[in-house]
Design brief:
The complex is a heterodimer of chains A (about 170) and B (about 500). Chain A has about 170 residues and is α+β, with helices and mostly antiparallel strands. Chain A is built from four helices and nine strands; from the N terminus they run H-H-E-E-H-H-E-E-E-E-E-E-E. Chain A folds into two domains: about 25-45 and about 85-170, Sandwich (Immunoglobulin-like), CATH 2.60.40; about 50-80, no CATH class. Helix content of chain A is about 25%, strand content about 40%. By secondary structure, chain B is an alpha/beta fold. Chain B folds into two domains: about 35-290, Up-down Bundle (Cytochrome Bc1 Complex, Chain C), CATH 1.20.810.10; about 300-500, no CATH class. Helix content of chain B is about 50%, strand content about 10%. In chain B, the strands form three sheets. A five-stranded parallel sheet of chain B has the order 1-9-8-10-11, sandwiched between helices. In chain B, strands 3-6-7 form a three-stranded antiparallel sheet. A two-stranded antiparallel ribbon of chain B has the order 4-5. The longest helix of chain B has about 30 residues, at about 80-110. The two termini of chain B are about 25 Å apart. The chains are: A alpha+beta (about 170), B alpha/beta (about 500).
Chain lengths: ~170, ~500
């Protein structure tokens, strides 16, 4: 009976043996991936001297505070002067081997749409050389950023496109 | 012939009967059938995961570079202890998922999901998800190829929830995109979820009196022993480290935790979410979609209640509570029943010596009068031996298995409703023998009916026999599942034979 109990008790462990480390192919050996992942802030809808407004308000506060008590700094000065912080959405276009794979607009985050736009897209491509062209537009009158390259996609490799702030351009790695 | 106490014998469904057959088979080879202890085995496995996890944490480095290296060290260099701990942690979690699913299946198949058990069922659904999420975070911590896959797919799933302002997948886009803070968050989530898990377990058993959360010693020892043996023979392996510049094309998947990711190969994320939500809500609504029949409801006859609290002690579902006396009688307390928690098992009737509990209007005194009337009728029969059978509604269909015997059946909601004085009434009225047929040991539909029955008839729990005259040989207790008709018949026939012979040397059970 003990042997029978041992054998029956082993059944869950047979399940564990079969199911806890079963090889699974999520991608084909010839698959490769192009990833676009970065955050980018679009241009302001209206350019205004935000720093200047704040400096002047701070100066007024210091001046009036010396003379009287209970002076308040007006933290809503930017809204009152119409200095909107809203940003343009970021538009992205991806063309691979002459085929448009992506044409999308990314809204800035935040209740007042004054944050950055976050871009994350991924595309499964077959390994080999592909002609990749990416265009990024972040403002009404600003010229688009362009990245155009013949790229060798290794098997099971990931090619990442991101925005380098220091170089102020799209880069591929 | 059969008389009924407002209770019908429950004809079990096909799957329920199949489950009982399976338990019956295992009862032949196990002293402690693990299918009766799935819940406590599950809790035990959580403790195993917790203690092994604490050991692993001692060596774990909470940063992208150190995480994998520390796990590799435990797996390869400290294989004799750290590696075993890691394997116990992994396989214990896999076994926990198996046990939980078996527990869920048993609960549903044996109709233990409805009515007063709804809170336990719904909290159980949350527990399932909590264990799963905890496990996913655990895999994430290793930061190997499997973790990379888990991270990518989990991020894609979570991004669809509109509370996140940015796509989480950006964090796994390339080298330098992860820092130690992220791994601290992962670790805290993995550990904090364990705390939430214990809170949910508390809710899960909150309406169960004296919940058995520890398995019998042998069962716990055997579980740990088998886990340890398996961990030594098949130590948990380690995939290559995560590389965010390459695809985790082929990965050894742990299907116990990663079953949701495989379909993402073919299904879109919104479709997966739809399936998850529909399945979760569907399972949570099972008590309403497949309702169990509402049984009787107990109520207290206040003028008879002495506030002895025995009904409170014996109620398996904490449906009875005591409060200060309200009718001026010289007792401190009075009992009250919460109807929504009442299972209708009648165990409280079996616990009460003062005729203070009634079941849907049928008082204990009226029930005893029924017993007396039937017993006198039986005793007047010329053919013997005469038997009065108290049959649990969830046990063997006694009335269908007593052909040719001079017997009458009283079906009760649970064997725990029967108290020794009820058997005494029958014996004093001239019945030759009394049989109490309850459910299989450890498998009482109302948890403790079989145990309380044994304790009361052994004199170890109130109420006990009114007289001390030896009559053990005229009382037979049977603990059999509904599928054991032949054994029931055989035992009844043997008992009748013993009564014919005088049966002085026959023990009670």
């Amino acid at each position: 009976m003990r042997i029978a109990a041992f054998i029956v008790s082993a059944i869950p462990f047979v399940l564990i043996y079969m199911l806890s480390a079963a090889e699974f192919h999520f991608y084909a050996p010839s698959d490769s991936m192009l990833k676009i992942a970065f955050k980018h802030s679009g241009k302001r809808l209206e350019e205004c001297d935000e720093a200047g407004f704040l400096l002047r308000e701070a100066e007024r506060y210091r001046r009036e505070n010396r003379q009287t008590q209970g002076v308040r700094m007006d933290i809503g000065i930017l809204e009152k002067t119409g200095c909107s912080r809203e940003r343009y959405p970021v538009e992205l276009r991806l063309v691979v081997d002459g085929k448009i794979l992506l044409e999308k607009t990314y809204q800035p985050v935040g209740l007042k749409k004054d944050g950055a736009s976050y871009i994350y897209e991924r595309f499964l491509l077959k390994k080999g050389v592909h002609n990749v062209k990416i265009t990024l537009k972040d403002g009404k009158n600003s010229p688009p950023y362009l990245l155009k390259k013949m790229v060798n996609f290794p098997p099971q490799g990931i090619v990442l496109v991101r925005f380098d702030k220091r170089k102020d351009s799209l880069i591929m790695e | 012939m059969e008389d009924r106490v407002e209770t019908e014998h429950k004809h079990l469904g096909v799957f329920h009967l199949m489950w009982l057959h399976l338990e019956g088979l295992l009862n032949r080879i196990y002293r402690n059938n693990p299918l009766y202890h799935l819940h406590s085995i599950g809790v035990f496995l959580i403790w195993v995961a917790l203690f092994t996890g604490i050991y692993l944490f001692i060596f774990y480095k909470i940063n992208p570079e150190g995480a994998y290296e520390s796990v590799r060290y435990l797996t390869e260099e400290q294989w004799w202890l750290g590696g075993i701990m890691r394997s116990l942690h992994r396989y214990g979690s896999d076994l926990l998922v198996t046990v939980m699913l078996l527990h869920l299946a048993k609960t549903f198949i044996t109709s233990r999901h409805g009515g007063w058990r709804r809170l336990a069922w719904i909290s159980g659904v949350f527990i399932l998800w909590m264990v799963w999420i905890c496990g996913i975070f655990g895999y994430w911590l290793v930061w190997d190829r499997k973790a990379q896959l888990v991270a990518l797919f989990s991020a894609e799933m979570l991004e669809r929830i509109p509370i996140f302002g940015q796509p989480l997948s950006i964090n796994f886009s390339g080298a330098g995109s992860l820092d130690a803070i992220f791994f601290y968050i992962l670790f805290i989530m993995h550990f904090a979820l364990t705390v939430f898990l214990f809170i949910l377990l508390w809710v899960h058993v909150s309406r169960i009196a004296s919940a058995r959360i520890n398995p019998p010693f042998r069962v716990g020892l055997a579980t740990l022993g088998l886990l340890l043996l398996y961990s030594i023979l098949f130590p948990a392996g380690l995939e290559p480290p995560a590389d965010l510049k390459s695809l985790p094309a082929t990965v050894d998947v742990d299907w116990f935790f990663m079953f949701l990711y495989a379909p993402l190969k073919h299904l879109s994320v919104p479709t997966m979410w739809f399936i998850i939500i529909v399945a979760t809500v569907g399972i949570a609504l099972v008590p309403w979609l497949f309702p169990t029949r509402k049984g009787l409801t107990a109520s207290v006859i206040l003028k008879n209640c002495t506030g002895c609290e025995q009904c409170v002690f014996d109620c398996p579902y904490e449906a009875i509570y005591m409060q200060r006396r309200s009718d001026g009688k010289p007792f401190n307390l009075e009992a009250l029943v919460s109807p929504e928690r009442c299972a209708g098992c009648g165990i409280c009737v079996g616990a009460c010596e003062f005729d203070a509990i009634s079941m849907d209007g049928l008082t204990e005194r009226e029930f005893k009068e029924q017993i007396l009337a039937i017993s006198r009728e039986l005793a007047g029969t010329k053919e013997g031996p005469t038997l009065l059978v108290f049959a649990c509604s969830w046990g063997v269909d006694a009335s269908a298995n007593l052909d040719g015997l001079t017997a009458r059946v009283l079906t009760v909601p649970c064997g725990g409703m029967v108290q020794p004085s009820m058997a005494e009434i029958a014996l004093d009225a001239g019945v030759d023998g009394v049989v109490i047929a309850a459910c299989a040991p450890n498998d009482c539909h109302y948890r403790t009916g079989d145990e309380l029955l044994k304790l009361r008839f052994s004199g170890l729990r109130h109420p006990s026999f009114k007289t001390s005259v030896g009559r053990d040989h005229r009382i037979k207790m049977l603990f059999l599942p509904q599928t054991a008709r032949r054994e029931f018949r055989q035992q009844i026939e043997d008992f009748a034979e013993e009564l014919r012979d005088g049966g002085k040397n026959t023990p009670c059970v």
